[in-house]
Amino acid sequence: MTNRHILSGSLLSAALALTACAPSTDMVYTQFYSEAGSLVDTGGFGEATLNNRLIMTGERQYTFDLAKRFSTEVDSTVNFEFGSSQLDGTAQAILRTQAGWIRQFPEIRFRVYGHTDAVGSNRSNKSLGQRRANAVVQYLSTQGISRNRLEAIVSYGETQPLVVTDGRERRNRRTVTEVSGFVKRHPTVLDGKYAQIIYRDYVASAAQGGGGGAAASE
User: Where does the signal peptide begin and end (predicted)?
Assistant: First the structure.
């Protein structure tokens, strides 16, 4: 066998070895034909700068504080009958309480998350969760809350149960209302006058408690 044949056989063996070791996905190939850095940036570029700005201006912390307060002071969850997005009397009463709290803070946006239990397909449950979130937003809008401040765009379907079970579970058939941030272009927020929001809330609490003091907790 000549040296030329030996060299060709060695090269072929090396190529086969590399092919066997190559990943099964196409990422190793596509990265050579993509824009530099495309595999590094997954869509979150700039989030660190945005987070720093929100923290320095106080917006991030105030949003977090309001979200925690909302979930503490009112029931943020309503439940549904199996396969239904209809609001019963209990759910409507909870939502009226939510609306009363939300009206105190015209600067704040809210998001409604829809959930289901595990019965049924993931596709149908995701659709049902969305309908439940839409029903809550619709009801809150009848209580004097602008639709511009309410979002029903997220449905977790059956993926985030409170009680892990494959069967019917009312506690999993729910929506959750949460503070999501500030309304854009609101003059109070643009001026950074967060003290005005706090002061207005303080005056409202004194009026509710009577006698000029803060409202007593129940």
Answer: 1-22
Rounded Cα gap, residues 83 and 9, in angstroms: 66
Q: Is residue 140 part of a domain?
A: yes
pLDDT band at 217 (very low <50, low <70, confident <90, very high): very low
Question: 0.90 cut: is pTM over it?
Answer: no
pLDDT score at 118:
93
Q: Residue 90: give the domain boundaries.
A: 55-209
Domain CATH number, residue 75: 3.30.1330.60
Question: Is the CA virtual torsion 71, 73, 149, 131 positive or negative?
Answer: positive
Nearest to 176 by CA among 105, 26, 75, 100: 75
166 part of a folded domain: yes
Count the neighbouring beta carbons within 10 Å of the beta carbon of residue 21: 7
- Alpha-carbon gap, residue 182 to 191, rounded angstroms: 13
- Asked whether the predicted pLDDT for residue 30 surpasses 50, the reply is no
Residues 105, 154: Cα–Cα separation, whole Å: 22
Q: Indicate if the pLDDT at residue 109 is higher than 60.
A: yes
Percent of the chain with pLDDT over 90: 42
Of 113, 112, 116, 111, nearest in space to 84 by CA: 116
* Mode of pairing for the β-strands spanning 108-115 and 174-182: antiparallel
Instruction: Give the integer Cα–Cα distance in Å for 207 and 85.
Output: 36
CB atoms inside a 10 Å sphere around CB 113:
23
